[in-house]
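protien #1 (seq + structre)
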Amino acid sequence: MKKILFAIPFLAMAMTACDPSEIEGASEWGAISADQVQATATPVQVDGKSGNRIHVACTSPVVSAWEADQLVENTTHTVTTEGEIYVTKIGTNVIRCLTTNVGGAPTAKEITVQVDTISYITQTISDRLCIGKEGAPKYFGKGYSASKIVLEQTIDKLTGKLGNSITIKSNPNPALCTFKWGSSSINTNVGKIVTYALDVEQELTVEFLDATGKSETISLGKFTAEAYSDLPEGIKLLTGYDPVSAPTATKTWELAPANNWGNGGNNDKKPSWWTTTVEGQGGSNGTITFDFPNGILTKKLVNENNQAGDKSGSGAFSLDFSTADESKSILFTLKTTEPGNIIYPIMINQGDYHPTIYDVTVISENELVLRAQHTNDATWEGCFWVFQAVKE
C-alpha cells in the first residue's frame, strides 16, 4: 500500500482554542467530572484502514486540550475544541482529553483508539528513516530483518588497510534504526558510521524500532579499523598530517607568550581561575613537535637547566577521538609517553605529579589548549597549557 508523507507542521493542524467567553449562560460553565466529558477521538481513514491522524472533538462546555504519547518523540499536546492529533504507533493508543471547568479543577478522560497504518510522520522521523534517499525505506511501518541491510567497510587508499568507517548502503527496513560500532553511533537508516579506535575489534549492532513499538538489537558482526580512511580534522590541525597532501608532515607548537599555564574548572575550555607563565614557575619555554605517521612527540626546551626538572626528549603519543564530549569541552584526548611529554607537565596544586593524559579543549590552525584533570575529582579542578603554532 502506498504510504503518504504529510509535511504539514503539527501545530498547523490544531484548531483555535476554545474561548470560554463564547459559552452562553453561567449555568452551562459548571463542574464536570471526567465521566461526564463528551469527547471523541476517531482515526482518519486511509484506504479503508484507520490511520494515525486522529480527529478529536469535545462538546462539553469546558476548556479542552489533548495529549498523545509518541514512540520516539515527546508527548504531543495541543489545546483545541475540535481538530487533529497524531500518534506514531500501530495498534492500541490512548488519547487523553484534558479539561478544565469553571472551578479550575482539571479532569482527564482517556480514549482508546486502534491504529492500523501510519499515514503521517513528522520531519524528524522522516529524516531518521532517510525517506527519499537511495537504499532507504519509503514509509514507517512494521517488520524488519537484518538480512536486508547492505554495508561496506572503507579501504584506506594510502595503505590499502581496512578503514575506520562503514557505510550503510541499503536498508529498506521500515523501522527506525540506530547503528553502533564501538563507542560511535548513528541513528539514520542509511549513512556512514565512523570510529576513531584503531586495531581494536569492535562489534557493529543495529537496534530496530518499528511502528508497532517492537524493538530488538541485532549484531551485524565484528569489524576492525586498521587505518584512518576518514581522517579526523583534529589530526591535521594538531600534527599537520594529511594522508594525501602531506603524508610526511609534522607540526610544531610553542607556549603562548603570556598566560600559558593555569587552572580552572575541570570542564572549562581555557584556564579561568588563575594563570601565569611556565617561566615564572621555574620552567622553560620550548617547542613540541608532532610526527603523526611515526607516532612520536618530540620536546625541545630552551633551558635544559631549569629548576622544574623538565627535560627535552621524545616519546610515543596517541590520539583518542572516542572521548569527545561537548558537555565536558573535550574534542579528543592526547596521550603522551615520557620523556616525550608536553612542556612543563606539572599539575597545579598537585605537587610534582606529571600527567600523561590530556583533554584537547581548543584546537585551530594556530591555537591549542590542553587540560589535565586532577586525580581528586572532588576539587573540580583542571590544569591548562596554552600553545600557539610555530610559524614555518
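ok now protien #2
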Amino acid sequence: MQNNNQKFQEFIQHYMHVQDVLIIAGGPSQLSFDLTTIHPSKKLLIICCNQSFLQLPQAQIAHHSDYAWWLQYQATLKASFQGDIISGCGLGHNRPYPEHEVLSLKTVRIDTQAELFHSLHYVYGNNCGLQAFSLAHLFQPQRIWLMGYDFQAQQGQTHAYQHQQPQELAHFEKFWGLFLKDFQHFEHLRQRVWHSVHPKHQLPQVFNLNPDSALKLYPSPLELPHWLSLHAT
C-alpha cells in the first residue's frame, strides 16, 4: 500500500505550478455563502481548514493543526471528506497519527527555517490558517486566495462556528492578535526566503477575499460573492 509521503509527493507533482490555490478558513464572513458551486480542478487547488471541510468535502486537502481537533473530527473526516489529503501538525500532543490516515507535517522553527518551501514535510505557523497558507506555497502557485480569514467576530459569531459570550470573545481576540503577528512574521520570512529556494519562479500573489478582515497584509481586489461567481461551475 502506498504510504502518505509517497502519495503526497505524487500529489505535489500533479498540482505543481497550479494557477490558483483557495484556502477556506472558518471565519464567519463566508459561512452564509453556498460554496458547493466551487469545484476543485487541475487549475484550482482547494485547502480546507478545520471544520470547513464540511462545507466543501470535495476539496483536495483538509488541514488541521491540533491533535485534539483531529481526535474529535476523525470519524467525521473519514465519513464525509471526499478529497485526497488529510494533513495535520499534531500540535498539543506527541502521539503519532495512524499510518495512512493523516499526512503528518512539522512546524518550522529557528533551527529548521532552511526547510521552509524546500521540504515537503515542513510548514510555518502556530495556527491552522497560517499553516495552510504556508502549505499552499509547496505547489508554487500563481495566486493564493484567502477565504474566511477574518480574525474577528461577526455578530457574535467566530471561527468556531458558534456564537460566543463577551468574555469568550475577549479570549479569542487575544489569540487573534498573536496570530496576526505571526502572519506578519511569515510574510517577512517568505519575502526573504522564497527566491533563494525557487529563483526561477515568482513569489505567489496573495489576495484576501474579505476586505473587512483584520488581516490587512494582502489586498482584496475581489470580494467573495464576485469570486464565487467567476469560479462557479
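Helices lie at 4-15, 67-80, 128-136, 166-197, 224-231.
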